[in-house]
Amino acid sequence: MERILLPLTFAALIAVYALLPLADRTLPTVLLAAAIWGMVNETALTMLVVRISRASAASEALALYNSITYISAAVGTACAGAIVSSVGFASLGLAAAVVCAAGLLMVAASLQQSQIA
Predict the structure, then answer these.
(1) What pLDDT, in 10s, does the model give residues 31-73?
(2) Residue 81 and residue 104: Cα distance in Å, rounded?
(3) Cβ contacts of 3 within 8 Å, gap of 6 or more
(4) Contact, 63 vs 71, CB < 8 A?
C-alpha cells in the first residue's frame, strides 16, 4: 500500500504547490489552500517517518531526518523570502513544486531499491 500511497501523496503535494499561485486572490482561497496543503503535507511526512522507522538503522535514520528537517526549515524560509521578494508570491508555489518533484524522484528511487533488495 505504501508503494502506491507515498508517491501519490507526493504527486498531490506537487499539485497543491503548483496551484498555490491561484490561491493568493482572496482570504477564503488562501485558507482553503493552506488546509489542503496541511493535510497532504502531514500525510506525506507521516508516511516518510513510518518508512524511515522500518529501516535497519532506524534510530540513526530518524536522527538524520530530524536534523535535516530543522536545517531545511531554516534554508527553505530564507529561500522563500528571497523568491517572494524578488519575483513575487506566485513563483513560490512553482519553486516548491520543483523541490517536491525532486523529493518524489528520491522516493521513487528508494521504493525501487527496496523492491530489488
Answers:
(1) 898 899 999 999 988 888 888 888 888 889 899 989 999 999 9
(2) 24
(3) 111, 115
(4) no
Torsion sign over Cα 58, 63, 64, 68 = positive
pLDDT tens-digit map of 73-116: 999 999 999 998 999 888 888 888 999 999 899 888 888 887 66
Cβ-based neighbour number of residue 83 at 10 Å:
18
| Residue with cell string 521504493 | 111
- 58 touches 52 (CB < 8 A): yes
Phi-psi region of 26 (alpha: psi -120 to 50; beta: other; left: phi over 0): beta
